[in-house]
Each structure stands twice: as C-alpha cells, then as structure tokens.
Write a structure and sequence with these properties.
The chain is of the alpha/beta class. It is about 55% helix and about 10% strand. The chain folds into two domains: about 130 residues, 3-Layer(aba) Sandwich (Rossmann fold), CATH 3.40.50.2300; about 90 residues, no CATH class.
C-alpha cells in the first residue's frame, strides 16, 4: 500500500513542525503549507494527498473559506485543528464539509487515531466518504444540546423534514433582513438572536464569506 500523504496547513511554525514530526513518526509522508496560496500550490503539485489538517486562523483567507475551495476541487479528508473552540465555529466548519474538528490544545494520540481512521474510511469509501449535507445536519443536531444557535425545528427542516409553515414565513422575513443587511454599513445594530438566524441562512445559501462575517460578530459580542 502506498504511504498516505498528509498536508499540514498551519502558519504557526512551532505547531506546524510538531505536527510534521508527529505524523512522520507514524509513518506518513507530510507536506507543509503556511496559508491558502501555499496550500493550493502544494495540492496542485501533489495529486496523492489523502488528508488535509488545517487551522482556521490563517493569514489571508481563513480556513473556513479555504475548506470551501478545497471541497469544490478535491475529494480529500479534512480535519480542522484550531484554537477556536466555540460551537458556532464547530457547526460552521462541519457544515462547510470538514470531516472532523479538533480544538487546541489537543491530545497527539487522539489526533493520529482520528487521522488514521479518516484516511482508512476515505480509501474504502471514495466519494461517499465525504460528509454530505444531511450528515452534517445530524452532527448539528447532536451539538444542539450545547449550542442554542439552531432550534430543533430549524435542524429538522434543514434535514428535509417539514415541521410547519411558520418557518417559511420566517424565511421570507429573513430574506428581507438579508437584503437590508447588504445595504447596511455593518451588522453591529442587530441582536445576537437575529444574527444567529442570519448565520443559519447564510450557511444554508452557502454564502460562507457572509457567514464568517456574522460568526465573527457573534463571537465578539459573546466575549465582550
């Protein structure tokens, strides 16, 4: 069997070098990248990458935007390894298409086990190994107990289960709010509750740049 290849996308030198040493000790071939442009270059020159381990806080485009670009081009396993430990980022990362989300500080043994299992599943399952929208909704439902961003009815509706007509009415109102949001200079005037609903709609429409902007505002409000 060919040696699996792991691409590490991390701008912090010490963390990146530690990850390289960790995975090389497990017998993997490891490639390094420090930002999005570097990542795309390495992927272009290496068709045999099996897994990408990526931080979210990167110079230039953040990891959430890069993950979306990655999913549009390659069928490869993706693990977010990041210091962002709030549930908003977890759900957004999984919605975009990450196969796993691990927060720093991390257990090295746990990371290598998850990476190995993901590489194995990807090799066995091919395209079917990627998390689809319905699976990510199930993950969001599981996270629901610790994260009151999505209501139970919202998540069921996103999984294709129609709860009632009220949500359709809410969606129309949210579309009006989105139009108003686009005209506004910023989003600081919105309540957290409204921002959370707009975040859900941005994810649903796959407008991840807007989702990232809204998520940052929610995080700023909750940490102040």
């Amino acid at each position: 069997m060919q040696t699996p290849v792991i691409l590490i996308v991390e701008d912090e030198d010490v963390t990146r070098l530690n990850l390289v040493s960790l995975f090389e000790a497990e017998g993997y071939k490891v490639i390094e990248a420090i930002d999005g442009d570097d990542m795309h270059d390495k992927l272009t020159n290496n068709d045999d990458v099996n897994l990408v381990v990526m931080d979210i806080n990167l110079p230039g485009k953040n990891g959430l935007i890069l993950a979306r670009e990655l999913r549009q081009k390659r069928k490869v396993g993706l693990i977010f390894l990041t210091g962002r430990d709030n549930d908003v980022d977890r759900i957004l990362g999984l919605e975009i298409g990450a196969d796993d989300y691990i927060t720093k500080p991390f257990n090295p043994r746990e990371l290598t086990i998850r990476a190995r299992n993901l590489i194995t599943r990807t090799a066995l399952g091919g395209e079917e190994s990627a998390i689809d929208a319905r699976t990510s909704d199930a993950i969001a439902l599981a996270i629901r107990y610790a994260c009151p961003i999505f209501t139970y009815e919202d998540i069921l509706a996103r999984a294709g289960i129609i709860v009632n007509s009220t949500k359709e009415e809410e969606d129309l109102l949210l579309e009006e709010e989105e139009d108003k949001l686009a005209e506004d200079d910023g989003i600081t005037s919105y309540s957290i509750e409204k921002l959370e609903r707009l975040l859900e709609k941005a994810i649903e429409k796959e407008d991840y740049e807007k989702a990232s902007e809204i998520r940052d505002e929610i995080t700023r409000r909750k940490t102040n």
